[in-house]
């Protein structure tokens, strides 16, 4: 069995076990596999709690996974809803007829975080210019390298900068989620591309600062998809429809204010 097939099988088994644990016969359980950024930044925790309060007959089991892994789980029948942020992978998923419903639900943005002593020199640069300078000067850069939407954006920036960082001494790959990758960057006093909500959730504990790049090209749109063939298709579709509705968007706005005091995720 290939490494991807093995990993998908292990995750699928874990999801199936989690779906059975504590499930009341009167509840419909919907497995939502979402980008780790949404889990690490706690937005989805707040939003799903509000949905469950409105629908006490539904329980949403949220699992964090990089986009590529989330869609692989959906293909394997181990996810009812996905919330991801890699448009190219999502479009392929839709074109293959795997989505019952797909809705763009909110958007955030990425920032480049780094050590205070050198980040100021990058202020106002484009992401491409900043990445090129990091490579030229050999500053440590920590990458998720995990098939996530964040990693794909990072790779696109390196490509546009004309740099292949793979194997470089200054380039560290964690193959972990956003929260753990940010911790490694903090420990190494390194640069990292991070979703703004996770950076804000970490507060000042990382010791890193926002390099304040030109925000052009650093937007981060999320799409929710109800997976075709889900055994709880009606509830999966209802949740995606709610996220895209006025009620769902208001829930996202309230979660933003509760968690960050500002609209970080724009409905």
Would you mind describing this structure in some detail?
By secondary structure, the chain is of the alpha/beta class. It has two domains: 123 residues, D-Maltodextrin-Binding Protein, domain 2; 102 residues, Periplasmic binding protein-like II (D-Maltodextrin-Binding Protein, domain 2). The chain is built from twelve helices and nine strands. The strands form two sheets. Strands 1, 2, 3, 4, 7, 8 and 9 form a seven-stranded mixed β-sheet that branches. Strands 5-6 form a two-stranded parallel sheet. Helix 8 links the parallel strand 5 and strand 6. The longest helix is centred in the N-terminal third of the chain and has 18 residues. It is globular and about 60 Å long. The N and C termini lie far apart (41 Å). The N terminus is likely disordered.
Describe this structure in a few short sentences.
The chain has 267 residues and is an alpha/beta fold.
Helix and strand arrangement:
Layout (H helix, E strand, L loop, with lengths): L2 H18 L7 E7 L1 H5 L2 H12 L3 E7 L2 H9 L5 E4 L2 H9 L3 E17 H4 L7 H11 L3 E3 L5 H12 L10 E3 L4 H11 L3 E4 H7 L5 E3 L8 E9 L5 H12 L1 H15 L7
Parallel strand pairs: 1-2, 1-3, 5-6
Antiparallel strand pairs: 3-9, 4-7, 4-8, 4-9
Helix pairs in contact: 3-12, 11-12
What key phrases describe this protein's structure?
D-Maltodextrin-Binding Protein, domain 2; 21% strand; alpha/beta; 267 residues; two-stranded parallel sheet; 2 domains; 7-stranded mixed sheet
